Amino acid sequence: MESNKSKILIIGVTGRLGFELAKASLNSSHPTFGLVRDSAFSDTHKSQKLHTLSEEGLTLIKGSLQDEDILLEALKQVDIVICAVSSKQVHEQKILISAIKRAGCIKRFLPSEFGADPDRSQVSDLDHNFYSRKSEIRRIIEAEGIPYTYVCCNLFTSVLLPSLVQPGRKAPPRDEVSIFGDGTAKAVFMSENDVAAFAINTVDDARTLNKVVYMRPRGNVCSMNELVGIWEGKIGKTLKKIYITEDELLKKIRDTPYPENMELVFIYSAFVKGDQTYFSVESSGGLEGTQLYPQIAYTTVSEFLDTLL
Q1: What is the pLDDT of residue 4?
Q2: How many domains does the chain fold into?
Q3: Does the residue 105 lie in any domain?
Q4: What pLDDT, on a 0 to 100 scale, did the predictor assign at position 65?
Q5: Which is it for the CA torsion 139, 144, 145, 149, positive or negative?
Q6: Model-wide pTM > 0.70
Q7: Which is the catalytic residue, given 134, 186, 237, 273?
Q8: Which PANTHER family does the UniProt record give (predicted)?
Q9: Which domain holds residue 287?
Q10: Which pLDDT belongs to residue 3?
């Protein structure tokens, strides 16, 4: 059973998503390796995660994205590479791509994306190259002829949903709520462990080779008006709604220093411009994860909001 499962190297296993990817890979019986920096072992929180994953069967390889020779040695042991580094480290994947090209044995590369499709962003004048860096990595992968799958899961439930998309808040409102734009643009939410389950299913799937896999699960594609409606139903109360126009939000983005304004930029992208849903998956040539893998159960937005009551 296990011998025909691809061997997977995950970079960034101590991060929130990387940890879930490693767990999902091990749960699916893939021989799984994690590239880990030395500094992670002296960080209590990270070393605890590494201990948990090691107990479950993860093979640790000490190294970093800066060391092409160590990367090369690691790559020779695996078939698949998944990178889950933070957005700040996206450009560091250039050395990894070079090593993948040199190794010549990697059947699939999933670069660090796991957000909105960077090629479809309409906020490039505001995002301090957040999306253009990811697009640049895509172009390098394609130019080198490296087999890939791009996973675009849009927003993590852990990011904006706990506050019901209220910047600066930690919990959802009980009295009044700000709604951006007219509240009708739809965004998509996914929990990290669900994203990991879908991502791991793509690695040995011929259908997803050199494709973009989008996550648009039923029950998780919501406008702000719909989100507020779901929450009002749960707390049995109508909230006072304050509509913030596109111009007002843009002014706030420009008046707030970087990087503090990035949360507002993501809200503008998702809930005003509709960057996550303005195009159809079919016409884009992409694939939709829940249609590919209907057997995977996932947490809906409504179920997530139940946890906040």
Answers
A1: 84
A2: 2
A3: yes
A4: 94
A5: negative
A6: yes
A7: 134
A8: PINORESINOL REDUCTASE-RELATED, PINORESINOL-LARICIRESINOL REDUCTASE 3-RELATED
A9: 8-155+189-217+279-294
A10: 60
For the chain, list residues with pLDDT below 50. 1-2
Name the DSSP letter for residue 185. Answer: -
Bridge partners (DSSP) of residue 109 are 81, 148
Q: Tell me the C-alpha distance between 19 and 11, whole Å.
A: 10
Nearest residue to 207 (alpha-carbon basis) of 129, 279, 285, 124: 285
- Count of residues in the chain: 309
User: Tokens standing for 169?
Assistant: 């808040």
Catalytic site residue 49?
no
Distance between CA atoms of 59 and 112, rounded to whole angstroms? Answer: 21
Q: What is the CATH number of the domain that holds 254?
A: 3.90.25.10
Kindly report the backbone phi and psi dihedral angles of residue 242, in degrees, each rounded to the nearest multiple of 5, phi listed first.
-110, 115
- What per-residue string of b and e applies to 84-109 under the rule 16 or more CB within 10 Å gives b? bbeeebbebbeebbebbeebeebebb
Q: How far apart are CA 84 and CA 147, in angstroms?
A: 17
- What is the greatest pairwise CA distance in the chain? 60
What residues have CB less than 8 Å from 267, skipping those under 6 apart? 160, 165, 167, 180, 249
Tell me which long-range contacts 251-256 makes (C-beta under 8 A, separation of at least 24): 253/126
pLDDT at 1: 40
